[in-house]
Amino acid sequence: MSADISTTKEKGGGAYFSYLRKRWFPGGAVHGRWVDYAFIGAFVVAIGIGTLATEIFFTEANIRNLSRQIVSNGLISLGMLIVILTGGIDLSVGSIVALGGVLSAGMSDKVGIGPAILIALFFGAVVGWVNGVFVARFKLQPFIVTLATMGIVRGFVFVYTETPLVSKHPDFRILGASSVGPLPVTMIIMLICFALIWFFLNRTPTGRATVAIGGNKEAVWLAGINVQRTIILAYVLSGLFSALAGAILVSRLGIAQPSLGIAYELDAIAACVIGGAILGGGGGGAIGTFCGVLTLGMINNLLNLHGVQSYYQEIIKGAVILLAVLARRKER
Amino acid sequence: MQGISKSYGGTQALRDVDFSAKSGEVHAIVGENGAGKSTLVKILSGAIQPDTGQILINGTQTEIDSPQFAHRLGIRAVHQHFSLVPHLTVTENILLGDMPTGKLRWWINWPEAHCRAQEIIEQIGFRDIDVRKPVSRLSVSQQQMVEIAKAVEVKPRILIMDEPSAVLSQEELKRLFALIKQLKEKSILILYISHRLNEVFEITDRVTVLKDGALVGTVRIQETDRGDLIKMMVGRTLDEVFPDRHAGSGAEILTLNGLGMEGSFENISFSVAQGEIVGLYGLIGSGRTEVARCIFGAGQPTSGEIRLNGRVVRPKSPRDALKAGIAMLTEDRIRDGLVLFLSIRDNVSLANFQLMSRLGILNRRRQNSLVRSKVQELRIRPPEMDRLVRTLSGGNQQKVVLAKWLLARAKLLILDEPTRGVDVATKQEIYNIIKGLADSGMGILLISSEMPEILGMSDRALVMREGRLVGEFLRQQATEQNLLACAAGVIEKSGGG
Fold this sequence. Notes:
The complex is a heterodimer of chains A (about 325) and B (about 500).
Chain A: H1 2-11, H2 15-24, H3 38-53, H4 60-85, H5 93-111, H6 113-137, H7 142-160, H8 174-177, E1 179-180, E2 183-184, H9 185-203, H10 205-215, H11 217-222, H12 227-253, H13 264-274, H14 286-305, H15 310-327
Antiparallel strand pairs in A: 1-2
Helix pairs in contact in A: 3-14, 4-9, 4-12, 4-13, 4-14, 5-6, 5-7, 5-12, 6-7, 6-12, 9-10, 10-12, 13-14, 13-15
Chain B: E1 2-8, E2 11-17, E3 26-30, H1 37-44, E4 52-57, E5 60-62, H2 67-72, E6 75-78, H3 90-95, H4 110-123, H5 140-153, E7 158-162, H6 170-185, E8 189-193, H7 197-203, E9 206-211, E10 214-220, H8 226-233, E11 252-261, E12 265-273, E13 277-282, H9 288-295, E14 303-308, E15 311-313, H10 318-324, E16 326-329, H11 333-336, H12 344-349, E17 357-358, E18 361-362, H13 364-377, H14 394-407, E19 412-416, H15 424-439, E20 443-448, H16 451-457, E21 460-465, E22 468-474, H17 480-487
Parallel strand pairs in B: 3-8, 3-9, 6-7, 7-8, 13-20, 13-21, 16-19, 19-20
Antiparallel strand pairs in B: 1-2, 1-4, 4-5, 9-10, 11-12, 11-14, 14-15, 17-18, 21-22
Helix pairs in contact in B: 13-14
């Protein structure tokens, strides 16, 4: 059924479409069906609504504001995407955000900002590695493993500090506040990360293996690829990006609360799904996820501008996720 | 059943088959792999519909359009592959959908359920199964008995048993036969499908022989003997699809010395030389795939040794095996050969990244040229590297898997059922490719359950049965009669050859 659709698309009037597909998605990480590009539509619709609904939307101040807001979710979603591509899920990202946040704030007084962030990244990667080892080597379910580490890491964060931390380092807020031209520095960091991961997923053997594992782990193993190591790497990257998101977030807010990042995994999963990722593996990519992050960010931003209460925001976000999943439903 | 035909795509699975059996009879259906036995069973149990022909039950024409309807007609099948729910208890599996409930039908009456399940189990002569245990904790043969109990529970009129003995021990087999006799007295029709002629002669009244989807004949068991039956099952001229072979075997590449794996095979010794095609024939469950997986590092042997070019190797994973120069095309391309939602390029590249990347980054130009060369060489249609593998035909999918392993430039290539589900034209192409590989000096171990393939391709044919190597034939000695008799356990011819 789905095969027919893609065939007609490529043979019929969809020649240009097919050209674009090959041009922009050469790895073929996505299905050849129209719904695979629905995230672009969602993105365009969100921009359209934004422009029509309020004139503040396209002001420089708002765009700068919006781009700051989406950075942390963008980075978390990027890590989440890699894990989802392998057929897993990472629920511990929110706790790792808090870990990265309190470590970078707490350590900056003692060792300086740069080293503090490196320490935060290191511990984020360690948590990811633990997740990966339990999933890949001990063959436990990703959901349960990361649910457990979510609790454990949150616990450690509170052990580290019960009260919000404020860095006394004078330059602590530079990272979150400075910008190059109209673009905040943190946004640039996020864009670079997306570009790197796009390259990783499309142009490196390990990246291609990551995508393939979500489709058929057995075939990848039989092709002589170290599946365990590839899966562990996915979780390490997820931990790394979450910790980075935590450090950036704390630098923007100027305060590191131990309760930071609760329920962030939901937004990250939502961004991936809106961007065309399939839970359980078998679809998704960096470009789609980027669109997903933007779309979700704009929805939040618009609702904020209109003064919609945050409870309604949750309802609308949930509905959008359901729609996205419905569109990507695998046909039998 | 009258004039039943069924075809899948280009292949005709059944051709105008007439078949009749009466109640209170044990009727065997025999034939080689691919003769159409399971298609016939599937039609009768409602899993698939015939293209033409009709089914008469007690004289009335019936269209069995679903398994549910077949159940209502009293047709039950015990399949080769179990349809049990592993983590549920034996009781639930036997009574699934028919659990006794309490007065208000709100809750399950467990004591009564267990009691009924126990009765059924005892009725079929298996007292040693604890009905409170989950099925996953039973042995394979016990699971088989639960499967049978499940079918018997509904008191069917027609009971189909597809290779029920494959996993049973001698002792259990006796009890199964006792049960069949018991059922027969209740005038139930039993269709008994088996490769094992010994069993057919012991238990059945009549036997129907199928070959290449057509009916050869139905005979009373007293009026025939093994030789006749085998002649009926084979007796075919080899198709002309196989290329000429002039075996010029060189040094030994692979040598197995007493290789064994607990619970699946034991004491396997054979060798494959450079430029040689060695066929490995065996019925499903004979352990041939497990042997191949051990050589490829996808399984771990518990005894014996594998030598590659004279040196002992112990591949711990397919990765090790590939590094040592062993490649394997696996039996089920969808399950463990392909990533369906990825492109031809990605699938072919999967085992060959080291050829096309440097410092962990893919060299796209090199990747494209390598993949393109194989796509052209194997004539994969359509020749578009970006095409998702899911949209290709079975034959072309198989070529993609083959392309992957050809790029790996192995010294030894194991092919497990390389032409399963592939149309005739592609088959011939694949045979030519295999021959070309052998001519270029590669050692090839060809596993197949298709007799003509083994006979037409291999320089030497090995036969496995029940986890043991039971025969070895040179090309000149290998005949269908020999191989089949060997695989079915009628004669045994070890070593030498």
